[in-house]
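Re: the 273-residue chain
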Amino acid sequence: MPHQGDQDNRPLHGRTTVPVVDLNCRERVQQPMKLFCVGCGPGDPELLTVRAVNLIKSAEVVFAPTAREGKSSIALSVVEKYVSKTAKTASLVFPMVKDKESLKDYWKRNADDIAAAVRSGKKVVYLTVGDPALYSTWIYVHRELKRNHKDIEVEIVPGIASMFAIAAKAGISLAEGEETVAIVPACYDMDRVRRTAAACDTVIFLKDGRYFDSVIEMLGESGFPDNANIAIAQDVSDEGEILDVKKLSELRGKKGPTEKYFSIMVAKKNARE
C-alpha cells in the first residue's frame, strides 16, 4: 500500500496536487521583531506625516516620554486622538537632570521595557516630540537598543522640528545661498554662544527662554545688525502659542516677550526684505 504522503502528491485529473501552506502563518513566523519610533512634530496634531498617523492608529502599545513620574507626556497629548482605544499606553520617565550616570539607568530601563513589549509580538510605537534625530529622548533609547537588543529592528519616522514650524509661521527663511545655520540647545555658556553667533548667519536657540534677554544683547555685540530678524516663540503649534517677530533694535535693552523655559528663538543676521 502506498504511503499516505505519496497519495497526496499523485496526479489528479492531469494535475499534481501540493500540500496547502498557510502563507499568513509563514509570514508571521518570519516577521522580524520591529519597533517604530515616530516623530510627533511641533505640537499640532495636523502636522504629522501620513506614515506617522497610520502607525499610531495601528499600534497596540504606545510608549511616550515624560520628565517625571505622574506627569503627562507632551508627545502623547499631541497624538492622542489617533491612538486606538484598545491600545496600551505607557509613559517612560526621562528626568531633566545633568547627572549622566543616573540618567543611564533610566535609558537602559526604558529600552528594556520597550524591547520586552516588542518581543511579546505586539505592534509597538515610541513617540517623541519634534524629530527623533534632534535633541530627542529617542537618541538614548536607540543607543541602548543597538547595544543590548540587537535582534529588534527599528524604523524611524521623521517629524517636523519646531524651528521649521516657527520659520513658516514667521514667514522668514532659515538659510539661503551660502548662509550657515547653527543650533544652540541651551544658553548657559555665553562665550560659546558668542562664538557661534559671530560665525553663523542664522542661529536657532532652543528651550531656555530665561536667557534670551542676555542672548539678544550678545547678538548685537557679535555682528548681528539692528535690522536682523528675531523670532521668539513658545508653545509652538499649540493653542497657547505665542510668536513675536521683531528687529534686533526693537528688542535690545528691553525685557523679552517670554521667559518660559520651553521657548525658541530664531535670529537671522541678514534680513532681506
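The radius of gyration is 26 Å.
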